[in-house]
Amino acid sequence: MSGSDFQHEIIHQSLSWEQLVANIKWDTDGLVPAIVQDQDSKQVLMMAYMNQESLKRSLDSQETWFWSRSRQEYWHKGGTSGNTQQITSLSYDCDGDTLLVMVHANGPACHTGRISCFYNEVNEVDNQSTFNNNEQPSTTPLDSGKDRFAILAELEQMIADRDRDRPEGAYTTYLFEKGIDKILKKVGEETAETIIAAKNQDNDELRYEVSDLIYHLLVLLQERKLPLDDVLAELDRRHERPRKD
Fold first, then answer.
1. Full DSSP string of 154-181
2. Distances (CA, A) of 229 to 86, 150, 220, 238
3. Do the Cβ atoms of 83 and 171 come closer than 8 Å?
4. Considering the entire predicted model, what is its pTM?
5. Between 78 and which of 83, 110, 159, 209 could a Cys-Cys bridge form, CB atoms 3.0 to 4.6 Å apart?
6. Are strands 65-68 and 73-76 parallel, antiparallel or unpaired?
7. What is the per-residue pLDDT across 148-192, written as a single tens digit (0 to 9) for each?
8. Phi and psi (nearest 5°) for 244?
């Protein structure tokens, strides 16, 4: 399928670019959420935002382009990792406020190396809980009986496994193969994005960016073969409490 045929199919024959743009309900920032789904498996891979320019770039290149709200720049999915997404179709919902992008994925969609960003499965929800007036639910993600920091150990082990096995197409593999300079660049970028999210007073974005930063810091520790336990021991040493007689 040629680029022109592809655009013709997506824009539904008689629908012009101007009409397509007019039919989409862009938010106050000129953005619309785009859900990316695998054409073959039908698995939902990720959600990101497009504006008019990134939508046009996606149609022109036949690969997904998005707008980063934190970095305030366009990003081509897979432009650095190689995990590009070849668009097979694009549609919008009945309200025109969400895009659905069907793709052939050339590798994992998630920066963690997972196929899909939607891997946090909710097995049980307490639907009996009630909140009075303006009371907000707790944001603590783990049960009190669980180790709050178990995920760090699991993530550290996963990163070590990636370093050892170097599975093809994994983002972590890409970082290790590019080496220390690339890893340091990502740590710097995620630090900057964390600062921007905090400055914007957006806790949802801050949670996301801090998670990215912690992940890349763990990759850096693995690259330097410095165990996380050594860092925790250093923190413990610095904050050692006075002993009681």
1. HHHHHHHHHHHH--TT-HHHHHHHH-HH
2. 41, 13, 14, 14
3. yes
4. 0.51
5. 83
6. antiparallel
7. 778 888 889 889 988 998 887 788 888 999 999 999 999 999 999
8. -85, 135
